Amino acid sequence: MNYRKYKQAENQKKKRMYTPEGYISDPPDAICPYCGEAKKSCSYVNSLSRAWARSACAKKHNKELKNEKK
Prior knowledge:
Layout: H1 3-17, E1 18-19, E2 22-23, H2 48-69
Antiparallel strand pairs: 1-2
């Protein structure tokens, strides 16, 4: 399998995993503890990229909380 076919297969998997309504593989009760939203990349951590999204969300919302306290 050459690289282009490999990337095409990989992109097809991604298209099946994510829809405009949110991520397919998320449990129905998955909610981000920082922003409180469901079906976002930060709502359910099952991969490294989603863990990075959760940490970015935490950093963003912790900054907002610190600004409100001042």
